[in-house]
């Protein structure tokens, strides 16, 4: 048990040193595992990634947002549903949802858009549909962000 704990502490210390890009200290912590080249390469990659991120803040925001939508779609959907007026006990009076319901004549078709959104807000069958739609949106955000970033990089390299 002590051996496992010591290995975990050494790995945590090595990760900290790599994150701080202190190659000399990190090598001391992980020499038995991967050696100096690995640590130096990791520091170079971390440095390159940091420099790229500094030069592409919009890309970082777009990809992060899209990834969050894909990873946790209902974390984004539930607040939006609540603002529109789809509550856990039904449509909230005086909101867009109740106006939409009134516009439908007060009768809501089972399986329709309104019913699916209300079901999602209540944790019912609509969760899967809404989550899938939000994940698709997130994937689209990542794709568009990547495409625009690549286009801008190409445009910048041509103009230089």
From TrEMBL:
InterPro entries assigned: IFI6/IFI27-like_sf (IPR038213)
Protein name: Uncharacterized protein
Protein keywords: Membrane, Transmembrane, Transmembrane helix
Gene3D superfamilies linked: 6.10.110.10
Transmembrane segments: 67-89, 95-115, 127-152
